[in-house]
Amino acid sequence: MRQFFAILKDSFREAVDGFVIYLMLALSVLLVVVVASISFAPAPPDEALPKVMQNFRMIFPDRGKSAAPTGVPVEYKTADAEATPNGAKFVLTAASPKAPKSATADAEKDGAPADGFRYAVYAWREPAGEKNKNPFGNRPGGRNRNQNQRTDLEFVLPPPATAADLQTVTDADMAAFIKDQFATFAGVGDVTVTRRPGVAEPEYQFDVGLRDISGARGWPHAISLFFGSVPPIKGVPLGQALQFIEDVIVNGIGAAVTLMLSVVITAFFIPNLLRKGSVDLLISKPIGRSQLLVYKYVGGLTFIFLLSAVSIGGVWLALAVRSGQWDPSFLLVIPVLTFTFAILYAVSTVVAVFTRSAIAAILVSLGFMLFLYILGQVKSFFDMNKVTNIMEAPDWVYTVVDTANNLLPRYKDLDKLTSKLVVDSTLTPGEVRLGGLLTDYPSWSGAIGVSVGFIAIMLALSCWRFSRRDY
Amino acid sequence: MSVIETRELRKTYGRIEALKGVSIRVEKGQIYGLLGQNGAGKTTLIKVLLGIVSKTDGEAGLLGHAAGDPAARRKVGYLPEDHQFPGYHTGYSLMDFYGALYGVPAADRRRKIPETLELVGIAGRMNSKIRTYSKGMKQRLGIAQALLHDPDLVILDEPTDGVDPLGRREIRELMQRLKDRGHTIFLNSHLLGEVELICDRVAILQQGKLVREGTIADLTRQKGRHEMAVAPGQQFPADAVMKLGYVVTPLPDRPDVFEVSMPDGQSIDPVVRLLLDKGLGLRHLVEKKQSLEEAFLATVEGAEPGVDKRPKGGRRVRQVGGRD
After folding, report:
1. Which of A5, A380, B101, B229 is disulfide-compatible with A285, CB 3.0–4.6 A?
2. Residue B300 belongs to a domain
3. Which chain B residues touch A if contact means CB-CB below 8 Å?
């Protein structure tokens, strides 16, 4: 291990020798400072509640456990809203003149009143109904060849109910439903609900109390830069703002720039090691050549690990302090970004060992990065096309795209997975589940397994060449 | 056990033969000099021993291990010719890095690095970046890194390259001290005067072949040639000596001293007896020697300077064996 740490330390010295690393660190610190200057102020209840309750028509059956949602139109209104310390209290009115006909036909036949809210609570309480069919699936020429792809959109129909079924809904069910909707769509977990008596059904009134709204992910906030000196943007749910900063700014633009600059900086490490007069000195030391190369490779990875740790860790800390959201999932982007770089650096290493040219290593690595990005986009398009059949394409195109994606590192998949990490840690459970309906997330094991295999092949090739060559 | 031993060692680069069956043996505690023109194969031989290049055929051993074995390299310090140290290191940090690669514990490194740098005379600049060092300082640093882990064998490829005369003398003295402490030194140098001063044994490579090997005395001895003079006021009996079959020539700068060259297989004893019989007093009798440089030039004279040329129509002239 002494040799390993010596080479790690040497790589670190090499990395910090140039000005680019300091420029990158300065940019990271600047980003952290800007993020730390963002203020998040919860919107007052009368402004926030209508926005929060826009999604209440969406229901996750089986007491919120179903992954697939359904919808029951109910009108929700609030009155007498007032702010309490870090919370709000108000009167919630739920009313619907009619439930969907298709579902309550039996109830109407039985002479029961059309009761949308009661039906919504029933649909929430009971297991999910039949799956909705993919409207694109029946199009002529629809492919749907890949068994792993969804052929149905993941929506379910509300379960059918009779008037007698609706009468099984209790006040406690209604209170639990309202609490779950606030938890699902506003991220507010501390909710008290009491039904007001004396209101004629099918209208319902509840006294609702919310607490801890300032850190609630779905609660609209006023967001301003530079400690409030810039006029705020109002009505943005806290989670969506955090997701934009973490996923778009840091994990998107920031990560792409960091990856490209890191490829450029670290591309010199191996060619410098292989310079005449330098390589002899190292090879003459009691260390195996493969060991030396692999350690140097890992040394290159520590460069981006430290850089991303500073920037991502700093942004996370600043956001946590300023927003009260301390979910550490975003920090997992640090190892994932390092792993993504490991793929590119493996390519850089093999090119450097064969050519001893830093320029060649940079060009090939960046070219490969672009190729993987395009391949990921093409794969996403053809996966979508399997369902929607927007574009006619011969079978071999699908085969080529799928094979290339199966064999090559999953650069785009890793990007999607880190986005999912951010989404999961910032958005409300309802937004996460609804967002998941529109996105196919790859598996971690597939994305990492194939990429690790690719890295291993690249390093094995590099070691083979380095071990056999005369210097 | 020999410290270095090669038998019929061969190395080819494509169609170029850099080493053509070299056999040498270096014993513990010796300072062994390796001489040869540029491209003679000296650096290639060192690189094969250290595993930097692979051998094509033959055997090469280092401290009882096969050449290139990391276990052997642990006990070897090496200063390559034209070395390039990373400019981002200071003298101290470079020594620390290499010391760690040799497995020297951190506490020992902290103690030995200043000592070793002091030994080569650059301790005062050990915290400066190497890119600010002069060539001579880098050379001294190179020697220091080769000595840090107290190796059994030190291989130095042109150690005095770029070093001023005073520094060269210090390096010579350092090598002598290392030898006195039982270290073995394998020295590759173009400065024949230095080699002559400190080496116990010398090998001369010529176009990949070992053409001479032996002690300095062996290589510089001129067999069958003596300088003789008799007592002042007496006449050297040149005619009588020539009648015995010897060739007698007065030295141009010292007319009273004669060079006596013997026919093959004869000794100087008959001449000594003749002088005694004639009642002459022998005042000067020295077996003639040449300098190592003269011996080296005599050995390699007429040979092409370490290049392989294509016999006919070839445009390529390729140097082999590194830049030695």
Report:
1. B101
2. no
3. 13, 47, 50-54, 70-71, 73-74, 76, 78, 80, 82-89, 93, 96-98, 100-103, 145
CATH number at residue B248: 3.30.70
Domain assignment of residue B303, yes or no: no
Residue B84 sits in the same domain as residue B177: yes
SS (H, E, C) A341-386: HHHHHHHHHHHHHHHCCHHHHHHHHHHHHHHHHHHHHHHHHHHHHH
CA of residue A279 relative to chain centroid, distance: 44
Q: Specify whether B115 is located in the same domain as B261.
A: no
Among B50, B84, B85, beta carbon nearest to A284: B50
Residue B70 lies in a domain: yes
Which residues of chain B lie closer than 8 angstroms to A470, CB-CB?
13, 47, 52-54
One domain for residues B138 and B14: yes
Q: Determine which of B46, B47, B49, B52 to mutate to test the interface with A (most A C-beta atoms within 10 Å).
A: B52
B78/chain A closest Cα distance in angstroms: 7
Q: Which residue, B188, B218, B248, sits at the end of a domain?
A: B218
Nearest-neighbour CA in chain B from A338: distance (Å): 24
Long-range CB contact pairs, B244-247, < 8 A, 24+: B244/B270, B244/B271, B244/B274, B246/B271
**Residue A350 in this model has a pLDDT that exceeds 60:** yes
Question: CB B78 to CB A281 under 8 A?
Answer: yes
A124 token code pair: 């929430």
User: Is pLDDT above 60 for A100?
Assistant: no
Residue B48's domain comprises 4-218
Same domain, B178 and B243: no
| B173 shares a domain with B73 | yes
Complex ipTM: 0.78
Q: How many domains does chain B have?
A: 2
Judged by a CB distance cut-off of 8 A, whether residue A287 touches chain B is yes
Closest Cα in chain A, distance from residue B172 (Å): 22
DSSP string, A123-187: HHHSPP-PBPPPTTTTSTT-----TTS-SS-S-BPPPP--HHHHTT--HHHHHHHHHHHHHHHT-
Model pLDDT for residues B132-164, shown as the tens digit of each residue:
999 889 999 999 999 999 999 999 998 888 888
Q: What is the DSSP string of B259-288?
A: EEEPPTT--SHHHHHHHHHTTPPEEEEEEE
SS3 (DSSP) at A104: helix
State the best of A11, A284, A291, A356 to mutate against chain B, taking most chain B CBs within 10 Å.
Answer: A284
The predicted-structure confidence for A383-394, as pLDDT tens digits, reads as follows: 888 777 788 888
